[in-house]
Design brief:
The complex is a heterodimer of chains A (459) and B (272). Chain A is mostly helical and 459 residues long. Helices cover 77% and strands 1% of the residues of chain A. Chain B has a single domain, classed as P-loop containing nucleotide triphosphate hydrolases (Rossmann fold), CATH 3.40.50.300. The chains are: A mainly alpha (459), B alpha/beta (272).
């Protein structure tokens, strides 16, 4: 029924649009050019007035309906059921009533419950119909009001544009509010964590064994929350990824921007950008099944023992993953250097190589650095490849041939299985998440700053 | 500039026009195509040494295209094709064995819009000497930079801020910086493609004065849209129209007693 209601709102808005537009057309026929807004704005104005408030009304109704009915239901229950019951017990009763009302009967319900279920069902029905009636009335009223306001001199265009502006502001703030919500929840849980584990241990401790017992009968580690091995692991893998991606990406960008002719470029660039669209799980397969064994075999060739989960394999594959960011953004940066710079250098008798290294790259450097930083924050935030290829054990090492773990991987492992949000094991995930968030945020801000500075460069 | 005095003279006999000075650059039957479109038709023009030759004509007449042939900057345009012969001191500049890097060191260029590199003033001027290895040490490089900036009459204005960015200068200063950059590699010929079109009258006057001074040491070929400018700075003028060289001669003759009706119409402002 709700679906039909939304359809009805849409149809009503369309009708309102035609009503408004024909009213506008009427003004034009009657007054000629002495009309403020064009008919189409009268139509849009009427459609928005009919559609938007009703839509908001219906959404609010759907949001509040359930809790209102529930409260009425609890109030109407006989005292024998609710006396002395805890909130948890009451919510159990309510869900039993709901189950009975929707026909899912597990055990023979008591007569009180059956009566309550009938009430619940009928109230739900009433609420739905009331909503439809109210919505239709609201739309009719809105159409009437909008139509009475319309006149040749009515500023329908301004009214419509103002409403659009408000809707756009609302959309923009929605994203900001969500971000704020994330930050607040992360900070709150992290503060809880730091009240159990001192920040000094978290930031400077060298031992990471967070798998503590949640129930008394579990056998588990003692719990050590020194996050340094996790951070160094992240740093190690991200550095390997950048070591792979920066030279490859830069070289391919220079080739694409300066040497490739248009046809080759038209083929290579989209293919490189496909790399950015490959799901990271697929990169994970590639790392586990292809790169890691290859690395191990290469190691045994030289007599070096390499663990099957090595930071090298994970980092190398991650480097391939972030390659398109670097090559594509660097290519754009190099192409954005004005042709006059190229010509100026070539006319001095510089070779193509000299022009690239002495003029183009320095001029494009801010854009290139911006691309590298964006790629770095991708690498730091990447999870799947590391889970699959680099292992789960926190290991304080700078040796890329050993397995390490990263912040994101630890967050995943901390939050699967038995979780309850009152022990340091689970809460430490939020502290890790907060650190990660702050680091990538800083990198992104830095990257955007540099890119902005670059934009001002030649104008 | 001592290499200028021992110019080879064989080009002079081939020159279609008789000049008071030796022909430095000679174009014979030059045709230029952009894809299927022909931009220049059988241009025969010889340009005298150490004087200013102005190329004038309405937009799209091919004068800039001809200018860009002289240091082979047209090579950077994929679809551009040049036929005919262009000689610099008697040597064919389109000879496959000739290194374009060396050619461009001998034939410098100043562009329409000032295009200093986003580097310091010093680095802008030092760019050419560095890539061609003209200075053996830091002191020599500094000397070249100072001499070039002096020749471009920019030294007094920038000597205290050589480390600042070249893009921070005013438009006229930027253009003189580009001229300094071009003469830092001691070219023999300087090509100027409407060097004053982006400048105000005062900056333009300074550049014109500079061109007059540079004429003593360099062969200058300047493309200009301003007929007053051509009259002020050049000794000889060539008039291009629709890809054809219509007329070439001493500047005062071109502006007072042109032989061709089209030239007459253009210089008197009847079209263009």
């Amino acid at each position: 029924m709700t679906g039909y209601l939304f359809l009805a709102i849409l149809l009503f808005s369309l009708t309102a649009f035609y009503v408004g537009r024909s009213a506008g057309n009427g003004f034009v026929t009657a007054n000629g050019r002495n009309v403020h807004s064009r008919p189409i704005y009268h139509g849009a104005f009427a459609a928005i007035w009919v559609g938007v408030p009703t839509l908001i009304l219906v959404l609010l109704w759907l949001l509040l309906e359930d809790s209102v009915i529930e409260q009425l239901l609890v109030a109407s229950l006989p005292a024998s059921l609710t006396d002395g019951a805890s909130p948890a017990q009451i919510s159990l009763i309510v869900s039993e009533i709901r189950n009975v009302a929707s026909g899912r009967i597990f055990s023979e319900p008591s007569p009180e419950i059956v009566a309550a279920a009938e009430r619940y069902a009928s109230w739900g029905m009433i609420a739905r119909w009331a909503m439809v009636v109210v919505a239709l009335c609201a739309m009719a009223l809105a159409l009437f009001l909008a139509r009475t306001r319309m006149a040749p001199q009515f500023r329908a265009r301004q009214a419509f544009e103002r409403t659009l502006t408000i809707m756009m502001v609302f959309s923009a703030t929605a994203a900001i509010l969500v971000t704020l919500g994330i930050v607040v929840s992360l900070t709150y849980e992290s503060l809880l964590f730091f009240s159990m584990v001192p920040p000094t241990e978290f930031f400077f401790g060298l031992n990471w064994e967070p798998q503590i017992a949640i129930r008394d009968d579990q056998v588990a580690g003692t719990g050590a929350f020194g996050a340094v091995p996790v951070f160094t692991g992240t740093l190690l893998i991200a550095s390997i990824a950048l070591l792979v991606a920066v030279p490859l990406g830069l070289m391919s960008a220079i080739y694409l921007a300066e040497f490739a002719d248009a046809r080759v470029r038209g083929v290579i660039k989209p293919i490189l950008e496909i790399l950015a669209g490959v799901p990271t799980v697929v990169y994970g397969f590639f790392a586990v099944l292809t790169v890691a064994p290859a690395v191990r075999d290469a190691g045994s060739l030289f007599g070096i023992a390499i663990s099957p989960n090595s930071a090298l394999a994970a980092g190398a594959v991650m480097g391939i993953m972030i390659l398109p960011f670097i090559s594509s953004l660097s290519d754009d940066a190099i192409q954005a250097v004005p042709r006059a710079m190229r010509d100026g250098s070539l006319a001095m008798g510089a070779t193509k190589g000299e022009t690239i290294t002495r003029v183009l790259l320095p001029a494009a450097l801010p854009g290139i650095v911006g691309g590298i930083l964006l790629a770095a924050s991708r690498a730091i935030g990447e999870t799947m490849i590391v889970v699959m290829a680099a292992g789960l054990t926190a290991n304080l090492t700078a040796n890329p041939l050993e397995g390490v773990t990263t912040v994101t991987v630890q967050i995943v492992t901390l939050l699967i299985g038995d979780t309850s949000f009152d022990n340091p094991k689970t809460l430490s995930a939020f502290a890790l998440g907060l650190v990660l968030f702050v680091v990538t945020l800083c990198l992104n801000v830095l990257a955007l700053r540099i890119v902005q500075k670059y934009r001002e460069r030649y104008e | 500039m001592d290499q200028m005095t021992n110019t080879r003279f064989d080009a002079v006999t081939a020159a279609p026009h008789n000049h008071s000075t030796h022909a430095k650059v000679v174009g014979q039957d030059v045709n230029v195509f952009y894809g299927d479109k022909q931009a220049l038709f059988d241009i025969n023009l010889s340009i005298g040494e150490r004087q200013v030759t102005a190329l004038i004509g309405p937009s799209g007449c091919g004068k800039s295209t001809f200018l860009r042939c002289l240091n082979r900057m047209n090579d950077t345009i994929d679809i551009c094709r040049v036929t005919g012969k262009i000689e610099l001191d008697g040597g064919d500049i389109y000879d496959p064995s000739l290194d374009v890097v060396e050619l461009r060191a001998r034939v410098g260029m100043v562009f329409q819009k000032p295009n200093p590199f986003p580097k310091s003033i010093f680095e802008n001027v030092a760019y050419g000497p560095r890539i061609h290895g003209l200075a053996s040490g830091k002191a020599e490089l500094e000397e070249i930079v100072e001499r070039s900036l002096r020749k471009a009459s920019l030294w007094e204005e920038v000597k205290d801020r050589l480390a600042e960015s070249g893009t921070g200068l005013s438009g006229g200063q930027q253009q003189r910086l580009c001229i300094a950059r071009a003469i830092a590699v001691s070219p023999e010929v300087i090509l100027m493609d409407e060097p004053c079109s982006a400048l105000d009258p005062i900056a333009t006057a300074k550049i014109e004065e500079l061109i007059n001074e540079l004429r003593e040491n360099y062969t200058i070929i300047i493309v200009t849209h301003s007929m007053q400018q051509a009259a002020r700075v050049s000794q000889r003028t060539a008039f291009f129209h629709l890809g054809v060289l219509v007329e070439e001669g001493p500047t005062d003759e071109i502006f007072t007693t042109p032989k061709d009706q089209r030239t007459m119409d253009y210089v008197t402002g009847r079209f263009g």
